[in-house]
């Protein structure tokens, strides 16, 4: 599919986004898999905005594996220089993934959030890091080693981004997190 001519890829991508905008459960997983794979096409920049519009719906999907699949696609977009900043509109939806019971979705959301934090600037960076610190603490005790490790690393990165008046609030978050972090001091990971 990657080797097909650009106009045909563009048409296929547009049909997939139309199919996904209808929310038909019989086709949504198949269509999303194809859509996510097509995100690797570097010449579909104009069409990618449409994908960003439908992702929030599928991040909240009850379909097993759908949020993780969408997060994998968003991770790919955050690594594309010309698309990375556009993904910031999805930040609140991705932060919601940290509060679900799905460790796979949390494991995918953490690298996405790490990439997004690097894209934020100034006050927005500080406020987001503070909000994120509060959501990361419960993940320190997740059953998945990967989620625990990624959440602790992201917490460390978030601490360094807080500036100004938010530093006092972050200090409280750090104090509240010290005991859970101390318990994990001798984890194998």
UniProtKB/TrEMBL annotation:
PANTHER family: MAESTRO HEAT-LIKE REPEAT FAMILY MEMBER 3, MAESTRO-RELATED HEAT DOMAIN-CONTAINING. Pfam families: HEAT_MROH2B_C. SUPFAM superfamilies: ARM repeat. Residues 64-189 form the Maestro/Maestro-like HEAT-repeats domain. InterPro entries: ARM-type_fold, HEAT_Maestro, Maestro_heat-like_prot. GO terms for cellular component: cytoplasm. It comes from the Eukaryota. This is Maestro/Maestro-like HEAT-repeats domain-containing protein.
């Amino acid at each position: 599919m990657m080797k097909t001519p650009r106009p045909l890829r563009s048409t296929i991508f547009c049909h997939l986004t139309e199919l996904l905008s209808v929310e038909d459960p019989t086709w949504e997983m198949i269509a999303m898999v194809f859509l996510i794979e097509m995100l690797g096409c570097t010449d579909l920049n104009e069409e990618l905005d449409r994908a960003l519009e439908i992702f929030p719906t599928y991040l909240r999907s009850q379909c097993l594996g759908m949020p993780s699949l969408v997060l994998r696609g968003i991770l790919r977009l955050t690594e594309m220089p010309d698309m990375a900043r556009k993904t910031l509109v999805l930040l609140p939806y991705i932060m919601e993934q940290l509060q679900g019971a799905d460790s796979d979705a949390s494991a995918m959301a953490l690298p996405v959030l790490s990439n997004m934090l690097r894209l934020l600037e100034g006050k927005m960076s500080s406020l987001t890091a503070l909000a994120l610190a509060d959501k990361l603490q419960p993940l320190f005790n997740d059953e998945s080693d990967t989620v625990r490790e990624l959440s602790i690393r992201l917490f460390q990165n978030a601490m360094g981004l807080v500036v100004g008046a938010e530093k006092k609030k972050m200090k409280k978050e750090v104090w509240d997190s010290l005991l859970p972090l101390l318990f994990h001091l001798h984890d194998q990971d």
